[in-house]
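Dear H.,

Thanks for agreeing to be a second pair of eyes. The structure we're designing against is below in token form, covering all 262 positions.
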């Protein structure tokens, strides 16, 4: 925002990049970002009335990301990398905003029992009542009280992936076994129910019913752009590159030199 980016472009940028990047934990000093967006102004008073993001780029310390908007038709509107892979992921890595990672995946001393045990998820400390969202679209398998987990939800996303959410203060009223949820939909609120020492979300990702580390598991991308639209999509990328060049620069997230030196 300090760079003068419009609020709408900023919000779109964080939404697109949020599938791949955990902004609260992965951004480091020296990382670089870039955007290409258009601004519409009122013809009378000159005030900004809307904005439209066309390109989002980011270079992290060990990763390079670039996504392009493509509005081919109602079936292909979305964000894709240069190869036509969707920016969207099956799951969002962090299903809560403004939270602190308070306990990682792996062996630890349990804060209640005092015994060493495997912690099969990650804990995000957050104020009681903080909204929790569905990490991905799917069907609710469980929703209710589950022993030491307190108020608990488990979502089946596809034949491979499930996610689970525990210790909630309450479950959203529309959430019950068998109901369908969309990625990003609020499913409950942070609490400290069950065996818990403070308000937090315990979050698990299961691959073929086995818990894995949510912060490191490789998540599959969404659908690729349809082959019949690839030629038009490549023209969109070329037009964006031309616009960037007209401002006297190039896209660093697509710079071959950077890719070869990282």
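And this is the sequence the design step returned. I haven't edited it by hand at all.
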């Amino acid at each position: 925002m300090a760079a003068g980016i419009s609020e709408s472009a900023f919000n779109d940028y964080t939404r697109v990049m949020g599938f791949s990047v955990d902004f609260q934990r992965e951004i480091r000093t020296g990382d670089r970002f870039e955007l290409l967006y258009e601004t519409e102004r009122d013809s009378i008073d000159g005030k900004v009335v809307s904005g439209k993001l066309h390109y989002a780029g980011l270079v992290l310390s060990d990763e390079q990301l670039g996504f392009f908007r493509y509005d081919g038709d109602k079936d292909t509107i979305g964000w894709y990398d240069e190869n036509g892979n969707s920016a969207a992921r099956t799951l969002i890595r962090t299903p809560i905003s403004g939270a602190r990672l308070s306990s990682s995946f792996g062996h630890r001393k349990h804060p209640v029992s005092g015994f060493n045990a495997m912690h099969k998820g990650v804990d995000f400390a957050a104020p009681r009542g903080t909204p929790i969202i569905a990490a991905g679209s799917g069907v609710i398998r469980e929703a209710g009280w589950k022993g030491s987990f307190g108020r608990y939800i488990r979502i089946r996303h596809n034949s491979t992936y499930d996610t689970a959410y525990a210790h909630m203060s309450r479950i959203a009223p529309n959430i019950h076994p068998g109901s369908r949820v969309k990625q990003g939909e609020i499913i409950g609120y942070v609490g400290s129910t069950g065996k818990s020492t403070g308000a937090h979300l315990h979050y698990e990702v299961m691959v073929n019913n086995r818990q894995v580390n949510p912060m490191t598991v490789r998540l599959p991308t969404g659908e690729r752009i349809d082959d019949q639209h690839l030629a038009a999509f490549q023209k969109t990328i070329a037009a964006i590159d031309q616009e960037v060049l007209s401002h006297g620069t190039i896209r660093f997230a697509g710079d071959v030199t950077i890719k070869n030196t990282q």
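Two observations from my side: The mean pLDDT is 83. The longest strand covers residues 48-59.

Warmly,
E.
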